[in-house]
């Protein structure tokens, strides 16, 4: 970049994880004529890791190298932005605390809320950029001159579920350059452009947990005393008979049907986790189904109409089901037209009107 | 496969990071192609060894002469990180049984700090000399801990981050009186001020070629004839068994060439100019940007280095903004870029993490010009004002 150059292009900060999606997002922005600046959020102290640790997750140190290699290839400046303390405070600590409360947390939403769409929005402004771009499978559309988030063209990869906390006022500042594409097309572009990440496998699971599993991650995070205090009994739902001891409530999630270590031949499911008594309730699948759920900390990007039937997703892989939504006390109540399986506290319920993301909240019970 | 379209292009901007590394002096562009044909192994018997051996011999001679020492006392290696490791571990190896205590400043380069920590695990006792907020060494501490148990004092001649000069000359007689050895990492002073190692009287000194306009991956150690030493790298008879491995002919020849060149130019005049540009920068920022602290301003410092802390400004953000505008500076030590921890040097000096995270280092070199500094100051003023305005707006919203 020359000192004398006058800014004619719009400047974009693109969050690059080192995966194929954000790499292609960055490359497409260059093609579209933006002045593109790549950034990776460093969320973990990799200096303490073994060389192969963290590989295959979305934010390992090797991924930072990949992001840098892509940036060099497409000839854009690239920086690593340190977010370790914020990531620990806003993502990891609440994740651990939720598990210890018998919930199944969704750390990707907190990462979007507090890091990508807060910390990076600040960085975007501080670096005098016009937009912030990410490799999310989501789209920005406009209606009556108002921008909103809409689902991706790729139903399978759609990531709007993780975006329900986005503040309306920042939506006009966002770009999702691959939201109109399907994954195979994204890979094809990566290959065509010779990006090293073209064939890299998709990240799955929680980036900071890696291969060790949630239980072990939490145990290494809080220490053996806290973990020991999480132990309790499996009880049969609804009768309450004790079926055995379990190794800590943080090892179990709603709908889980394996890993109990019980000598029991009948197929059973976790239907409830009671943090106070540290009881894990096991029962028939039928007890997993429910009509209603309560939401806390609802975020809305649009007016809510209590008479309208919306589509509500209760976990990332959920197809979405029709429901009505009403204000109830401090929170909201979601009533599905048909019973839904494994409504899990700690996960989010995300509300759509057709393709439009309307908002969402955290499932309480 | 070699990339057909390398991204690397000539830098278009103002380079103000000479303490991290210097540009390769353009006079080398002319010589290196000739040296490339001197491919022979300097240890061979046949004629192909003569050219490279001559280049190395001459370089050793020039360097030794400049430093006032014998050519035999110069050992070529890959740079000061290797040199620092070699010396500290050697002294532990050869002296550790009778003397197991080491004294070292708390603001040394990581290659000294880590080597000290490595021998600490093997039983050495390390006394870290404290520094104050002006970067001055606590000499009383040295006198207190120095004893017949002390094997080595290791203190850098100048600090890479703040530019502070350390009184190595005063430490030498102290070490001598206690029968201890003394080493100085001279990376940052070499080529910036006159250095006569014989007069200074140290037992060991370390240097890196890429800090004085030669090539990366080349450096040398000064090992006084009487100083105990064991090679870190066992191998052939190169460097009289003090450093195994076939010599880096190009790197060595380049260092010799630059050292010769330095004799032919008026270095005092060059550095006086550089210091005047540095002082201009400091006066300007202190006049025009409120809340600027110049680190160790009252202490003896290298004339090319300015370390400032700009209140309320996140240095990482500032550095990226400057980079995007074509000004290449640093937040501190180059080795720790990407490392979220604030500079250990600043923490050792007693600054808070918050203060340390607002720090910016500029380091000038032979090619730095007054006009560059003028443009840099202008840009810095604008960016700081914009970031502060933005922060104020956010703080107002938060309230």
Spell out the key features of this protein.
heterodimer; A: alpha/beta; Rossmann fold; SH3 type barrels; Elongation Factor Tu (Ef-tu), domain 3; five-stranded parallel sheet; 7 helices; 17 strands; B: 399 residues; alpha/beta; Aspartate Aminotransferase, domain 2; Aspartate Aminotransferase, domain 1; seven-stranded mixed sheet; 13% strand; disordered N terminus
What do these coordinates show?
The complex is a heterodimer of chains A (365) and B (399). Chain A is α/β, with parallel strands linked by helices. Chain A is 24% helix and 29% strand. In chain A, a hairpin with a 5-residue loop joins β8 (232-236) and β9. Chain A is globular. The termini of chain A are far apart. The longest helix of chain B is centred in the last third of the chain and has 29 residues, at 370-398. In chain B, strands 2-8-7-6-5-3-4 form a 7-stranded mixed β-sheet, sandwiched between helices. In chain B, strands 9-10-12 form a 3-stranded antiparallel β-sheet, covered by helices on one side. In chain B, strands 1-11 form a two-stranded parallel ribbon. Chain B starts with 13 loop residues before the first strand and ends with a helix. In chain B, α1 runs antiparallel to α9 and α2 packs across α9 (249-264). The chains are: A alpha/beta (365), B alpha/beta (399). The A-B interface holds A 1-3, 37, 42, 45, 47, 72-73, 75, 77, 79-82, 84-85, 122-123, 125-128 and B 7, 12-14, 314, 316-317, 320-321, 323-326, 338-340, 375, 386-387, 390, 394.
């Amino acid at each position: 970049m020359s000192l004398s150059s006058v800014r004619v292009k719009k400047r974009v900060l693109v969050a690059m994880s080192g995966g194929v999606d954000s790499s292609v997002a960055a490359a497409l922005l260059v093609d579209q004529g933006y002045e593109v600046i790549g950034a990776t959020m460093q969320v973990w102290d990799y200096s303490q890791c073994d060389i192969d640790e963290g590989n295959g997750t979305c934010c390992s140190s090797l991924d930072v190298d990949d992001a840098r290699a892509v940036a060099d290839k497409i000839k854009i400046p690239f920086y690593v932005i340190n977010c370790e303390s914020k990531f620990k405070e806003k993502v990891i600590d609440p994740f651990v605390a939720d598990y210890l409360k018998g919930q199944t947390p969704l750390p990707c939403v907190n990462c979007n809320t507090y890091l990508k769409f807060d910390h990076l929005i600040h960085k975007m402004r501080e670096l005098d950029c016009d937009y912030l771009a990410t490799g999310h499978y989501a789209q920005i559309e406009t209606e009556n001159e108002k921008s909103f988030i809409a689902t991706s063209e790729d139903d399978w990869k759609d990531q709007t579920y993780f975006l329900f906390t986005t503040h309306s006022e920042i939506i006009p500042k966002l770009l999702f350059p691959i939201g109109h594409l399907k994954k195979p097309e994204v890979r094809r572009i990566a290959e065509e452009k010779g990006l090293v990440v073209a064939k890299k496998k998709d990240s799955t699971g929680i980036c900071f947990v890696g291969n060790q599993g949630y239980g072990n991650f939490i145990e290494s995070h809080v220490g053996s005393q806290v973990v020991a205090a999480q132990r309790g009994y499996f009880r049969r739902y609804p009768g309450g008979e004790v079926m055995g001891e379990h190794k800590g409530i943080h090892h179990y999630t709603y709908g889980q049907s394996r890993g109990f270590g019980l000598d029991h031949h009948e197929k059973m499911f976790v239907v409830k986790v009671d943090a106070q008594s540290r009881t894990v309730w096991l029962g028939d699948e039928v007890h997993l189904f429910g009509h209603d759920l309560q939401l806390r900390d609802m975020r809305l990007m649009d007016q809510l109409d209590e008479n309208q039937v919306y589509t509500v997703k209760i976990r990332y892989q959920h197809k979405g089901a029709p429901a009505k939504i009403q204000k109830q006390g401090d929170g909201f109540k979601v009533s599905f037209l048909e019973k839904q399986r494994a409504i899990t506290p700690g996960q989010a319920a995300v509300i759509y009107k057709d393709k439009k993301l309307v908002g969402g909240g955290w499932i309480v019970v | 496969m070699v990339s057909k379209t390398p991204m690397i292009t000539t830098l278009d901007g103002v380079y103000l990071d000479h303490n991290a590394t210097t540009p390769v002096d353009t006079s080398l562009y002319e010589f290196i192609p000739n040296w490339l044909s001197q491919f022979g192994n300097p240890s061979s018997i046949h004629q192909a060894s003569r050219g490279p051996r001559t280049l190395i011999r001459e370089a050793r001679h020039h360097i030794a002469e400049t430093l006032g020492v014998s050519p035999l006392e110069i050992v070529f290696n890959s740079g000061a990180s290797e040199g620092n490791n070699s010396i500290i571990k050697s002294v532990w190896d050869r002296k550790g049984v009778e003397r197991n205590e080491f004294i070292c400043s708390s603001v040394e380069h990581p290659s000294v700090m880590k080597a000290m920590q490595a021998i600490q695990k093997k039983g050495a006792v390390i006394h870290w000399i404290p520094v104050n907020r002006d970067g001055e060494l606590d000499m009383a501490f040295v006198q207190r801990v120095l004893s017949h148990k002390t094997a080595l004092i290791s203190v850098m001649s100048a600090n890479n981050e703040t530019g502070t000069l350390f009184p190595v000359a005063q430490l030498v007689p102290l070490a001598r009186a206690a029968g201890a050895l003394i080493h100085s990492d001279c990376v940052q002073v070499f080529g910036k001020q006159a250095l006569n190692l014989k007069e200074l009287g140290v037992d060991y000194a370390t240097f890196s070629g890429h800090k004085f306009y030669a090539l990366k991956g080349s450096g040398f150690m000064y090992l006084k004839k009487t100083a105990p030493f064991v090679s870190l790298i066992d191998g052939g008879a190169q460097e009289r068994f003090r450093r195994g491995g076939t010599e880096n002919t190009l790197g060595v020849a380049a260092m010799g060439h630059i050292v010769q060149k330095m004799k032919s130019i008026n270095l005092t005049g060059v550095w006086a100019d550089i210091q005047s540009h540095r002082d201009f920068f400091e006066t300007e920022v202190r006049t025009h940007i409120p809340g600027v602290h110049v680190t160790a301003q009252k202490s003896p410092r290298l004339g090319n280095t300015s370390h400032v802390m700009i209140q309320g400004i996140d240095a990482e953000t500032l550095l990226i903004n400057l980079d995007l505008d074509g000004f290449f500076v640093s937040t501190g030590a180059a080795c720790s870029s990407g490392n979220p921890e604030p500079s250990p040097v600043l923490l050792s000096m007693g600054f808070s993490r918050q203060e340390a995270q607002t720090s910016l280092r500029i380091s000038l070199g032979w090619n730095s010009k007054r006009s560059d500094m003028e443009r840099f100051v202008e840009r810095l003023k604008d960016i700081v004002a914009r970031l502060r305005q933005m922060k104020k707006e956010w703080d107002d919203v938060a309230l």
